């Protein structure tokens, strides 16, 4: 994605709709400076703005990302590619979800079992419990993030 090209495309589509930066900003609930930064290519719109921006400008998201108007056939081809990429991404996330469950399990084993087997003194016991809890906690954080990402790809 080329930010400058996308910004120029947003500007062109806005002008074709007869909107000022201030009007587009008001419709999206952002400042006109934000619109200016998008149009100059300094920043990209947040993902949450893609759909409303495209609705206002009467374009499809694929057109926004490719920074050009497309024929119906091109839209279909790019839409199918996007859908395929979503399925691949969801499959990869589900694989990571399984690995995260294993990570949580390993963290629990470290915390409970290895503490009893390896720790000879209080310091070693605390160190083993902390390491196990870290692995376990890290796995839980990943699990939450992966499940959230999976729900967004549905």
Instruction: Bin the strand percentage.
Output: under 5%
What's the structural domain tally? 2
Q: Total strand count, please?
A: 0
Contiguous helical run count: 7
Compute the gyration radius: what is it?
24 Å
**Inertia-based shape:** elongated
How does the helix and strand content classify structurally? Answer: mainly alpha
Protein name: Helix-turn-helix transcriptional regulator
Transmembrane segments: 96-119, 125-142
Domain HTH cro/C1-type: 10-64
InterPro entries: Cro/C1-type_HTH, Lambda_DNA-bd_dom_sf
Describe the structure.
The protein is mainly α and 154 residues long. It folds into two domains: 64 residues, Orthogonal Bundle (434 Repressor (Amino-terminal Domain)), CATH 1.10.260.40; 70 residues. 82% of the residues lie in helices and 0% in strands. The chain contains seven helices and no strands. Helix 2 packs across helix 3 and helix 6 packs antiparallel against helix 7. The two termini are 24 Å apart.
Which key features would you list for this structure?
154 residues, mainly alpha, 434 Repressor (Amino-terminal Domain), 2 domains, 7 helices, 82% helix
Provide a short characterization of the protein structure.
The protein has 154 residues and is mostly helical.
Helix-strand layout with pairing:
Layout: H1 3-16, H2 21-28, H3 32-39, H4 47-57, H5 61-66, H6 72-118, H7 122-153
Helix pairs in contact: 2-3, 6-7
């Amino acid at each position: 994605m080329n930010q400058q090209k996308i910004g120029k495309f947003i500007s062109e589509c806005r002008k074709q709709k007869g909107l000022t930066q201030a009007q587009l900003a008001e419709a999206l609930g952002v400042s006109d400076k934000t619109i200016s930064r998008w149009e100059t290519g300094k920043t990209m719109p947040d993902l949450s703005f893609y759909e409303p921006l495209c609705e206002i400008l009467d374009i499809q998201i694929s057109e926004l990302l490719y920074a050009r108007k497309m024929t119906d056939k091109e839209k279909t081809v790019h839409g199918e590619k996007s859908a395929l990429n979503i399925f691949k991404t969801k499959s990869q996330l589900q694989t990571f979800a399984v690995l995260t469950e294993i990570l949580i399990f390993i963290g629990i084993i470290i915390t409970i079992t290895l503490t009893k087997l390896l720790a000879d003194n209080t310091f070693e016991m605390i160190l083993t419990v902390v390491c196990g809890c870290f692995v376990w906690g890290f796995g839980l954080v990943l699990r939450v993030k992966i499940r959230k990402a999976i729900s967004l790809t549905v």
